[in-house]
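Sanity check. The docking grid for zinc ion depends on where the pocket ends up, so I'm generating a full predicted complex first rather than guessing from homology. Inputs follow.
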Amino acid sequence: METILKLDGEGGSLALLGEKNDDDKWTYFIECQESAMPDILDEEDQDLLPLPHKKEIVGTDLRLALEKLGRHWRHLRPIEVHPDFGWSVYKQVLESPPIHLLHWKRVCLGNNPLYRLAEWISLSNFTVVLSGAGMSTESGLPDFRSKDGWWRRLDPHQVSNLDTLEDNYELFRDFYMYRIETVERHAPHLGHRILAKWEKKGRIHGIATQNVDGYHAAAGSEKVAELHGNIRSIRCHRCGRGAAVSDFLSKRNCSACQGRLRPNVVLFGEMLPEKAWNQAMQWFRSAELVIVIGTSLQVAPASQLPQLTSGRTVYMNMEIPDRLYRFDLAIQGKAQNLLAELDEMLESCLL
Ligand SMILES: [Zn+2]
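Predicted complex below; grid placement will be based on this.
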């Protein structure tokens, strides 16, 4: 049982408690400490009672749970808010602002890293994003660098390299056909769309991505540097001539020279595309704020980009590495959840 919100008045205290099940779903309870609550309410409000004097279950909907507290909670002073609930609670408080609004804001958002980031985004004149596999896996794509994502139990290093392209083309082609079909079966998620919206609103100024799925552009982002290429862009490995993705999926060869077709992705042992890399370096050098989303920063040289900035740096990922240097802020969570909450904060005009 965890405390979601604890309120204090002259006569007693009121708490909203929560219990999380294995699926991360919360069930809420209200606990009213003995006696005194009615003392601090005027007669009219007392009609809204009874509040439970013991712990009482109020269901799984946070909004309803807060409403169950009735009008009382806005009269009281918050003394504790669960860090994961600061924004949700504050949002609801704002719908009919209480007397001690500033106090509520301090308790709900004072230590909220997302709120701090929202403030930084609104203050920054040049914000850039580095995105990695975490963004793609939330669309349902397997992470080919993780063991779970291994195709036919093969380490991607064994397939995504020049030797396999040259000596074992069928295996190479099967692997990339499978991956292209996977990308085509899935789609960008809310997080991609929020980043695209932020670009249009001038909140971010460029995205460098290690992902090859093209989802940032598909969601509407225009300033994208695809550091590892794009899997749905095809060229001839011999003469470099472009080809349609349908040619590759139909196992055709280059129409000009009969050479082998391949995706425009960076294979192990190949250089990064110069134009995308230079663009990214320019962005990160100019950045006042760098937001890294969904990458463990293990693949060089992309992992070095955040170090180019003299501005603030923020790291967001499902897992925060033990040794994470040079970041001003680290926020753990699913990319689309974090971006959605940030977007709400930015849209709320509270900053
Ligand atoms: Zn060719």
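Relevant for the grid: The longest strand covers residues 13-20.
Also worth noting: Residues 83 and 112 are 7 Å apart (CA to CA).
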